[in-house]
């Protein structure tokens, strides 16, 4: 859904060529360099996943970092993911958790879900099972299916032990 919304926003922002329904890369880069957060996020996402053009993790890092710093929770989460897995940059778990926390402040469901693991394992945050449960439940309550599934699995295991 977010990809569709991003494409719709790109299509209406004047960075699409007349011959194609795909954004014109030069115009998109120009718009992103001019501070257009929609264009920055599009470049971040596309360089990360390579849907419209070839993935390039180093370029993804550049655009995801800019998008993250603009305050966009999707960009913050994508940037955190790049840092976590070392895509286009050395692994940086501390930086990853920092950006997941920023996105979670805006109720980004995937960021909340990823923070569950940070709190449960004590990865660059103090290990705290109550916070781990809180962020997982928050993500589930906001509709994130992965969080719902994990929460149910944890609850089922807990009931089985009692």
Automatic annotation (TrEMBL):
Native species: Amphritea japonica ATCC BAA-1530
Keywords linked to the UniProt accession: Signal
SUPFAM superfamilies from the UniProt entry: HCP-like
One Pfam family from the record: Sel1
Statement: the UniProt record of this protein carries the keyword Signal: yes
Signal peptide stretch: 1-18
InterPro entries cross-referenced by the UniProt entry: F-box_motif, Sel1-like, TPR-like_helical_dom_sf
Protein name: Sel1 repeat family protein
Domain of life where this protein originates: Bacteria
Keyword Hydrolase recorded: no
């Amino acid at each position: 859904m977010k990809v569709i919304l991003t494409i719709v926003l790109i299509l209406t922002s004047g960075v699409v060529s007349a011959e194609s329904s795909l954004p014109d890369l030069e115009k998109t880069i120009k718009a992103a360099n001019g501070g257009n957060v929609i264009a920055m996020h599009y470049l971040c996402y596309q360089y990360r996943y390579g849907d419209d053009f070839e993935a390039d993790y180093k370029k993804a890092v550049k655009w995801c970092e800019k998008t993250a710093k603009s305050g966009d929770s999707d960009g913050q989460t994508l940037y955190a993911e790049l840092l976590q897995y070392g895509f286009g940059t050395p692994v940086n778990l501390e930086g990853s958790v920092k950006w997941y926390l920023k996105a979670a402040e805006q109720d980004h469901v995937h960021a909340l879900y990823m923070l569950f693991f940070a709190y449960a394992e004590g990865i660059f945050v103090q290990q705290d099972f109550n916070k781990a449960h809180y962020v997982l439940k928050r993500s589930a309550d906001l509709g994130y299916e992965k969080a719902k599934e994990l929460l149910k699995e944890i609850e089922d295991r807990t009931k089985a032990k009692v």
